[in-house]
Amino acid sequence: MAKETTKTTIEADGLRYRSKAPGSPFAATSSFGAATMSCFLCGKHRPRALLKSRKLLGKSQPVCAPSCKELEEQLNKK
Q1: CA 27 to CA 20: how far, in whole Å?
Q2: Whole-angstrom Cα distance, residue 49 to residue 46?
Q3: Backbone angles phi, psi at 60, to 5 degrees
C-alpha cells in the first residue's frame, strides 16, 4: 500500500503551499498556564499543569507527572 502523493504548488509570494494548512497545531493561548510543553522523556505535548520539573543532565527539564506511563493510563481511562 503506497501512500498518496500530495502535489503541492508554491504560490506567487513563494511562502505558502496550497495543500498545507496554515498555522500551528499548537494554537497560541491567552494564559501561560494553558500552554503545552513536551515531556523530556516521552516527547508528548502536555498542558503545563500535567508536567513537573525534574533535574536531568544537570538542568531542570519538564517531565510527565507522576510518570509518563501512569499519566497515559489516566488519560486513556477518561
Answers
A1: 16
A2: 8
A3: -75, 125
7, 12, 23, 54 from 31: Cα distances, Å: 38, 36, 19, 23
Q: What would the grid cell of residue 72 be?
A: 497515559
| The residue type at 33 | G
* Structure confidence by residue, pLDDT tens digits, 2-49: 666 666 666 677 665 556 666 666 666 556 656 888 999 999 988 888
Say if residue 51's pLDDT is above 60.
yes
* Backbone dihedral region for residue 15 (phi beyond 0: left; psi -120 to 50: alpha; all else: beta): alpha
* Residue 3 identity: K
